Amino acid sequence: MTVTVTSGEVTAFRLHAHHLTNRLGERGLLDAAGGCGVQNSPPGSALLAFHARVQNLTQERVDEAVSEDKSLLQSWSMRGSPFYFPTADAPVFTTGVLPPTEEAMRQFIPGVGPAVDKLGLTLTEAVELTGGEIGDVLTGRQLAIDDLGAELAERIAKKLSKKRRDTWDEEGPHAAGQPLGEAVVHFCIRILTLQGVVCLAPRAGNKAPFVLVDEWLDDPIPDIEPDHARAELVRRYLRCYGPSTRADFAAWLGVRAGDAGPWWSLVEDEMTPVEFGRKAWVLTEDLDALRSAPTPTEVRLLPPRDPYTQLRDRETIVDKRYHQDVWKTVGDPGTVLAGGKITGIWRPHKTGRKLTISIKTFGALPVRDKKSLRAEAEQVAPLRGASSVDVEFDTY
Question: According to the model, what pLDDT value does residue 206 have?
């Protein structure tokens, strides 16, 4: 039986699941990361996303979790993007994300198909070639993608036939001067992260180096059945973005809707259909929470690609006429959350130690919200390395 709810109940449920109704306590970092992961592109956005969810969050606290107690891990995950997630949940965000078929893997990594086809390889074979060399290249080292890719490509080339090696060394279409084989290696490293072979170490300057997972972590990532990991990934998705659809889940994950069966079908018997202007599905066990989520009242400055704004039914949270302002192909702004609604966008500009935050809203803001946003900006400033902040308001 289909359950009817309001869009307001859906929004309140999602905001509560994303820890945006009330901030978590200072020890809530792992809970904030464990919902659906926290994307860290553009670099630094994850810190602001954590700040929006956790009281008194600092860069030092995140660094400690990543580098010292290793309770927080960063790796490429959904849509081939870098994400933070609890190390204890690594199987969900690696094994659980890994496409199980050659065709789905090709969809997950756009652009790889023509490259491996030209080489006469399957993507699976290319990943095996890369995985066979990466241990020798990366042991005891931390290498950014360009350096790692170049060394791997050079080693692999020596093991190819002359005809295939000539194609491997040709300049490819992905970057000026980059050999085709090196581009293929870059693509394959995305799969190796999902296989739990490599992960990302903390940034060094403007580079994010890769390390071997077995060297980075004191304990190995638990080996669990892929179906168990995929099912749990869908559950976490629905807890954060439900009610939702198979097609929306596929887009969030980074595969075609037709390839989402190995995930979605695993938990279909745990779902109930819901109507709120569109038909979607929610975990049956979350129905009571969907109907009773607290009304959100606080304001937040959410970063570009915040987990909350990664939902796919965008009309639920932003009027369609503003979609091109909120979700851009390049250079996404941050978003303003006030009273449970996305009410505008914001952009930072830093000069020396002074940060200017320009806020542009979809309509007039109450004075109390402007005051709260100024207070939020004061907390964002030190996270951006600033000692002072100005806030400028404008409307569409």
Answer: 85
